């Protein structure tokens, strides 16, 4: 019976860890994409073209979210639209609006600064929301630690000597 309980708890712990790992990687990708958007916006604001701004953003972020693959394929002669597919492949649908905006700017000549500013504001809002959720979960994590570690130790330290003394005395 005890073995079944231990195996069940181990399976539950593995499942929780996988879910947390997936959520952590998604939030990491979102943070990295925000950095790429910010650096690209800074390049566009400084007067660079979309291609150059993206390459410099890739360099500045250290190859975050597939920008290293973008830079590689762009340098090998691929079109920017083809190279941007690496970002979408790596990040999933999160990067699609950014890649669409840059592609439209390059092919149609649409102004990119306003679109990137809007995407940056949305990404910052999402990041702030994620931080708020994380802060809201903190008391629950602290309460769990209190209940599983501190309270049992307090009960053992507080009641065990009394029980042992009473057992010896009344024997």
Structure description:
This protein is mainly alpha-helical. The protein has helices spanning about 1-45, 50-60, 65-75, 80-90, 95-110, 115-170. Helix 1 (about 1-45) packs across helix 2 (about 50-60), helix 2 (about 50-60) packs across helix 3 and helix 4 packs antiparallel against helix 5 (about 95-110). The longest helix is centred in the C-terminal third of the chain and has 58 residues, at about 115-170.
Question: What attributes does this structure have?
Answer:
6 helices, 171 residues, single chain, mainly alpha, 87% helix
Q: What percent strand? A: under 5%
- Principal-axes geometry comes out as elongated
Radius of gyration: 26 Å
C-alpha end-to-end distance:
33 Å
Mean of pLDDT: 79
Figure out the total of helices.
Answer: 6
Strand tally is: 0
Taking the sheet with the most strands, its summary is: none
Runs in which pLDDT lies below 50 for 5 or more consecutive residues are: none
Helix content: over 70%
Structural class of the helices, strands and pairings?
mainly alpha
- Encode the helix/strand succession as letters: HHHHHH
Q: Strands, helices and their partners?
A:
Layout: H1 2-45, H2 50-61, H3 67-75, H4 80-91, H5 96-108, H6 113-170
What's the short story on this structure?
The chain has six helices and no strands. The chain is mainly α.
